[in-house]
Amino acid sequence: NLLASAGILATGTMAARYGFAQMSSMPGMQHGGAVPPKTVIQPIEGQPLPMLKEVGTGANGELVAELRASPASAEIVRGMKTPILAYNGMSPGPCFVAREGDLVRITLVNAIPGQESTIHWHGMPVPAEQDGNPMNPVTSGERRTYEFRLPEGSAGSYWYHPHPHKFTAEQVYRGLAGAFIVKPRGEDPVPAAFGDTPLFFTDMRLASDATMPASTPVDLMNGRQGDFVLVNGAYKPELSLEAGTRRRFRLYNALNAGYLRISFGGIKFALIGSDGGLLEAPVADMTEVLLAPAERAEVLVPFDGSQRSVTVQSLTYDRGWMGPGAPSAAAVDLMTISVTGSAAASIPPLPSKLRAIADLGASTITKRFVFGETIKMGGPGGMSMTFLINGKVFEPGRIDETMKVGQPEIWEIVNPTDMDHPFHIHGTQFQVIDTEKSGTRVAAPFKAWKDTVNVASKETVRIKIVQDMPGDRMYHCHILEHEHLGMMGTLRAGA
Ligand code: C2O
Ligand code: CU
Ligand code: CU
Fold it and tell me: Fewest Cβ atoms closer than 10 Å to its Cβ: which of 95, 229, 240, 409?
C-alpha cells in the first residue's frame, strides 16, 4: 500500500470541511494497484500553433482593458462542446504586453455564476491591495479595476489567474489564465529578429461527453493532472519555421499540478530567462528545462535545418505520487516544429550579455518553512487530507509571518514529504541561494529572478528575499489542489 509506505501521519478528519466526506469508495484506493479507466476521447490535433491575442499599451503609456470571466464553450474534440471558463471568451486569456514604466488599468468583470473571483498578477511587483488576493474577492456579478505601474527593471514573463478563496484550483483548470509580458523600457538585449513567442502550456481532462469531470480525492492529493497538454489552447499544434534562425520562446507552465520537462527534440538551446526576466548571460548547451507548476523560462532555440521536424516533448519526471492513476512514464509530445529551407543554414550568434542582476544584500534573518501533509484513509468518512506549511492549514485573516519592507531575509523551504512541492510567494522576485539533499549542498549555478521554486521531495531550498512594498502577501504551494487543501500562509510586510 503506497500510502502506508509513504509514512503519512493520520490525523482527525478534515473531510467534511472540504466536502468529500462521502467519497468512501475510490476505485483502486483500498487495493493499491487498480487504476481508474482513462477516457479515450481524442482532441483535435495538428492545427497551426495559435498565437495568443495580444493586448498592448496605448500611445499614452497606459494599458487599459477589461477582462470578463464567464462560462464559454470550446471545441476541443471535433463536433463536441466542452464547457470552460474563459476571459473575453478565450482560454488562455489575452496576452498583455506592456513596457516598464507603463500604467496598467484592467477591469475584471466577474460573470462566473455563484463564485467569487479575483485576478492575481503572478510574479508582478504590484501593490498588495491590487494583487487579487483571496481577501479581496470580486463577487459574482461585480466588477473591479486593478491599477498599478510597472517599475523599472520589471521586464519579464508573468501571468495572471484567479485567486479566490476555495475556487482557485477549479477556476484555473476550467480555463482562466493568461500571459502578461513586460518588455524593457530601453533596448531589448535579445535581437528582435529572434521573434518572441509565448508557449502557454495548460492541461485538461475530459469525460466521454467532452466535459471536464470534477476533481477526485486522488486529484486533490496529488494535484489535478490532465490527460493531455495544450499549447496556447491547442493540442499538439504545429509551427513552421525557416532554417537559419534562433527563436525566442517564453515557456509557461500554467498546469494545475503537472511538471513539464521540456526538450526540443535534443537540440541544444540557450536558457536566457527565468520567472522574473532575463538572466545575466545566456546559459548555452541546454537540452532540457524542468518547469514545475507556475514556473517560466525564456529560451533561444537554434534551427539549422538539419532536423526537418522537431518534436517538442515533456520528458518523464518523477515528482512523487500517492494512490492510483500515476502519470505514465512515457514522454509526452507537446507540439511539432517543421523546419523549411536550407538543410545546413548558419545560425546567428547568441548575445553575450543580457543584463545585470543585483545582489539582494546581507541578511541576518532566517525563516523556515516546512511542508507537511496529513492523510487518513479508511473509516466511515472514506479519506481526509490536509496540506500544511509549518504544521498549519491556511486560515483566512491569520498572519503567519511578518517581515520588514526593504530588509533581505533568508528563507529555508524544507520538504520532508514524498512529493515535490513548488513554493511561490506573491509580490516580489527572490533569488535561490542553494539546494540541499541527503547532505549535499549545491549552490545555484547562476543568478536568476524567481517567484516559484520547486522543492523536490526530501530537499531543502534556501532563497534570499526582499519585499519592497508593504501589505499582506500569500505564499503557497503552486500545486493548486494543495493550495486548496491549506498549503498556504499569509506574510505581512510592514515598515
Ligand atoms: Cu500563481 Cu498565489 O499564485
Ligand atoms: Cu502568485
Ligand atoms: Cu504541494
Answer: 240
Per-residue pLDDT at 430 exceeds 60: yes
Phi, psi of 148 (to 5 degrees): -160, 155
Tell me the β-bridge partners of 206.
none
3-class SS of residue 259: coil
The pLDDT of residue 107 is above 80: yes
pLDDT at position 76 over 90: yes
For residue 304, the CA-to-ligand 1 centroid distance in Å is: 38
> Which atom number of ligand 1 is nearest to the Cα of residue 161?
1
Q: Is 327 in the same domain as 404?
A: no
Lining ligand 1 with CB less than 6 A are 120, 122, 161, 163, 294, 424, 426, 474, 476, 478
Terminal Cα-to-Cα distance of the chain (whole angstroms): 51
Q: Using the mean position of ligand 2's atoms as its centre, give its distance from the Cα of residue 157 in Å.
A: 13
Q: In the prediction, which pLDDT does 17 show?
A: 26
Q: Please tell me the predicted confidence (pLDDT) of residue 375.
A: 82
Would residue 41 count as lying in a domain? no
Q: Are strands 332-340 and 238-242 parallel, antiparallel or unpaired?
A: parallel
Residue 10: per-residue pLDDT: 26
The reply to whether 289 and 234 lie within a common domain is: yes
The model carries a pTM of 0.92
User: Complex ipTM, two decimals?
Assistant: 0.99
Spatial separation of the C-alpha atoms in residues 103 and 184, rounded to whole Å = 14
Q: How far is the CA of 421 from the centre of ligand 3 (A)?
A: 4
Residue 351 lies in a domain: no
Residues 367 and 336 in one domain: no
Question: Is 87 part of a structural domain of the chain?
Answer: yes
Among the three residues 166, 183, 200, which one is the final residue of a domain in this structure?
183
Q: Residue 484 burial by CB count (10 A; 0-12/13-18/19+): exposed, middle or buried? A: buried
Range of the domain at 427: 2-34+357-494
In a domain, 64, yes or no: yes
What is the 482 CA–ligand 3 centroid distance (Å)?
5
Q: What is the pLDDT of residue 37?
A: 52
User: In this structure, what CATH number is given to the domain that contains residue 248?
Assistant: 2.60.40.420
What is the number of the ligand 1 atom nearest to the C-alpha of 120? 3
**Where does the pLDDT of residue 377 fall: very low under 50, low under 70, confident under 90, or very high at 90 and above?**
confident
**Looking at this protein, which amino acid is placed at residue 45?**
E
Residue where one domain finishes, among candidates 294, 313, 340:
340
What's the mean pLDDT when you consider all of the chain? 91
Predicted local confidence at residue 319, as pLDDT: 96
Q: How many domains does the chain have?
A: 3
Rounded Cα–Cα distance for residues 216 and 26 (Å): 9
Q: Is residue 70 predicted with pLDDT exceeding 80?
A: yes
- Of 198, 299, 213, 207, nearest to 254 (Cα)? 198
Q: What is the pLDDT of residue 379?
A: 61
